[in-house]
Amino acid sequence: MNTKQKSIAVLGAGITGLTAAHRLVRQGHRVRVFDASDRVGGAIRTEISGNWLIEAGPNTVLAGEPALTALINELGLASERVLASAQAKNRYIVRRGAPVAAPLTPPAFLRSPLFSLGAKLRLVTEFLKRPRVRLADLSLEDFIRDHFGQEIVDYALNPFITGVYAGDPKKLSARHAFPTLWEMEQNYGSLLRGQIAAAKADVERRGAGIISFRRGLQVLPDALAARLPADVVTLRARVEALVPGKSWSVVWQDGTSTQTETFDAVLAALPAPALAQLRFGTLGERPLASLEGIEHPPVSSLFLGYRREQVAHPLDGFGLLVPAVEKRSLLGVLFSSTLFEGRAPAQHVGLTVIVGGTRQPEIARLPTEEILAVIEPDLRQLLGVSGPPVFQRHTFWPRAIPQYNLGHERHLETMANAERIHPGFLISGQARDGIALPACVAAGEKLATRVG
Ligand SMILES: Cc1cc2nc3c(=O)[nH]c(=O)nc-3n(C[C@H](O)[C@H](O)[C@H](O)COP(=O)(O)OP(=O)(O)OC[C@H]3O[C@@H](n4cnc5c(N)ncnc54)[C@H](O)[C@@H]3O)c2cc1C
């Protein structure tokens, strides 16, 4: 038991908030978690319907983050964890209207039809780059072009960024979106040499693989919530205002009335648009209002089930990514039933099609039947899909993933300032600490340690 027990409000029951709450309860603090929705998990949302398992949000997690591994073990979920199938090593990228397997080894790269001889030579010369410290940030596209040339930008960076951020490498900041690459350039010059050195040094992360859980990623937030004492999580509680003083008053709406409770500290694990809305003090100022400026493009995720014979492609991979220059209606397709077992009934396959992002936000906003009509020719041409799906689930994310665009340091400063001006108020999560799920777990753990 902690001798300096504090009362702490955690705003948001996504993976960041739940991880922080779990740790704080274990440290002996009195914790209350507020979430505006009627479920825990935030962006993590698994649905099971008959023999279909649908991931509406994140589908896969890159293992190897020590905080995530420790949490999975602590929650007793290690036996539930599933590793992506061996076939998922293959990644397809569309080039000249057809899926081409991305090369996985240096000899395969030299033979690959995905890149021209010029691009291959350019990659070899990248090894010669000298360490450099840049005075100013630049776009991820300019940064990668500087190292590898335009073809790698078009057919490697662009689809990769589409898969991770649903974003635009022309707008993303090299320094903030990929800080490890930024540092590699300073230390090694060559990003290829940096990658090789990092892989050798970080034995734990190397080859850790891609994981989920037998019953989907929702298992993780559910297990965290289940470990908390019964009265800790309050759902359907939209926090609207915080009043600092000797202690913090948290003001929330429970659907019918306004409620208030006081705490020693407030940890906000909310997405940027929700942080921007928070009113502070009796005058109702919004010190985080400018975070509204963090771009969050809309994304639609369509889980489509087919009879096996309706899809000609062998689906022997993680999925397919579409570079912008190929001008297609979809951003990518995950081969969900190849990735993990138990995602589709026998003799069937499940695909997760992602549309929208910064590239085509208007497609993400269409009704389901219109999206299906728009993507049908591409699914037919790229994967040999014939006939309508026998099962479908459409999830629309109006503000999917925060983009760490050029100038992101402005937003980081806004968050740091709010913490400085308001002792006892801390911010963590996807707006600040990295967009991937393991980064959010690490951020939640760190948040708990910052409560003095
Ligand atoms: C479509 C999609 C696909 C993704 N794919 C991957 C992937 O494959 N791999 C990966 O690693 N990551 C992926 N991510 C990213 C990852 O899922 C998120 O970054 C992570 O889950 C965010 O966790 P969080 O707790 O910080 O925020 P969130 O999960 O957004 O949780 C914030 C919570 O705050 C609540 N809230 C909002 N406003 C208020 C308020 N005023 N009062 C109280 N509560 C409020 C919300 O209801 C929500 O539950 C994906 C994200 C999306 C959207």
Describe the protein in words:
The structure is a single chain. Helices cover 34% and strands 21% of the residues. It is α/β, with parallel strands linked by helices. It folds into 3 domains: 7-44 and 220-294 and 405-450, FAD/NAD(P)-binding domain, CATH 3.50.50.60; 45-106 and 209-217 and 297-400, Polyamine Oxidase, Chain A, domain 2 (Alpha-Beta Complex), CATH 3.90.660; 115-201, Orthogonal Bundle (protoporphyrinogen ix oxidase, domain 3). The chain has a 7-stranded mixed beta sheet. A 5-stranded parallel beta sheet has the order 10-2-1-14-21. The chain is globular. 47% of the residues are buried. The structure holds flavin-adenine dinucleotide (FAD).
Named once each, the bound ligands are: flavin-adenine dinucleotide
CATH superfamily placement of the largest domain: Protoporphyrinogen oxidase, mitochondrial, domain 2
Q: What is the distance, rounded to the nearest whole angstrom, between the alpha carbons of the first and last residues?
A: 15 Å
Largest sheet: 7 strands, mixed
What would you call the shape? globular
pLDDT averaged residue by residue: 95
Which consecutive residue ranges, at least 5 long each, have pLDDT under 50? none
- How are the strands of the biggest sheet laid out side by side? 8-7-17-18-19-16-20
Output the CATH class name of the largest domain. Answer: Alpha Beta
- Percent helix, as a range, is 25-40%
Give the DSSP E fraction (strand runs of 2 or more residues).
15-25%
Question: What is the CATH architecture assignment of the largest domain?
Answer: Alpha-Beta Complex
Number of domains: 3
The radius of gyration over CA amounts to: 23 Å
* Main structural class: alpha/beta
Number of strand elements: 21
Q: How many helical stretches?
A: 16
Which fold name is given in CATH as the topology of the largest domain? Polyamine Oxidase, Chain A, domain 2
